[in-house]
Design a protein that fits this description.
Elements (H helix, E strand, L loop, with lengths): L2 H17 L8 H9 L25 H24 L8 H13 L2 E2 H7 L4 H13 L3 E5 L7 E5 L1 H21 L5 H25 L4 H6 L1
Antiparallel strand pairs: 1-3, 2-3
């Protein structure tokens, strides 16, 4: 093992123990959480140890359960902020907004592709598309490559409403990530991207499988 790296790890361990002398806090999880919050230049701003929620039974996986609970709560906070961002707009929620964003960025796509891209169930995804068509924000045409499907495209009215809502969405995104430094936001983005890369093919190709079958994949 690299001797310099080992010395750095020992120094980090000493600094962590000095910051948190209680042996109950000196766990590997807390050390990793604390150490990843350190600046590359200094270790003067340690992060607080991770306070995992109490488990009602011993077979609950601690970290995965913690992540799922807080990701769900964070999503619900963002839904609230998005509701405020859209309150003076005909858009109802983030589903409406992100559908327009994908069309603005990628151009025409089939309805099925839109539903899959936005990770919606078919019924709810089609309702979003219908609502946007009824408002004149997207239009549908026959798919030249497949007569069984229809393509949807962003209209000028759709682009206008998208641009009108974007400042509020920007504020919602900044508010959600406000406690995190730029480095922490980049780390979180990388982790979320890894989760996306893992789960997208399961959603696209195996979503009818049981949990046991998904775990086997």
């Amino acid at each position: 093992m690299n001797t310099n790296l080992l010395r750095q790890l020992i120094d980090l361990g000493d600094a962590f123990e000095q910051q948190y002398p209680d042996e109950a806090d000196q766990t590997v999880i807390n050390f990793l959480t604390w150490s990843t919050g350190q600046s590359a230049e200094t270790h003067t701003a340690p992060a607080e140890p991770l306070a995992l929620p109490k488990r009602y039974t011993d077979d609950v996986p601690e970290l995965p359960t913690f992540i799922v609970q807080y990701m769900t709560k964070t999503y619900r906070y963002f839904k609230l902020y998005m509701k405020k961002a859209c309150e003076n707009s005909p858009l109802l929620n983030y589903d409406d907004f992100i559908a327009l964003v994908y069309l603005a960025e990628h151009g025409s796509m089939t309805k099925t592709h839109m539903v899959e891209t936005t990770v919606n169930e078919k019924t709810s995804g089609m309702l979003v598309i219908k609502r946007l068509i009824d408002h004149g924000f997207i239009e549908q045409t026959d798919n030249p490559d497949d007569r069984r499907s229809r393509c949807i495209t962003l209209t000028n009215a759709g682009m206008a409403v998208l641009q009108s809502v974007q400042p509020g969405v920007n504020q919602a995104a900044l508010l959600l990530t406000a406690p995190l430094s730029e480095t922490e936001q980049e780390q979180l983005a990388r982790f979320l991207y890894r989760l996306e890369q893992f789960h997208e093919p399961l959603f696209l190709h195996h979503r009818e499988d049981s949990l046991a079958e998904l775990m086997a994949n």
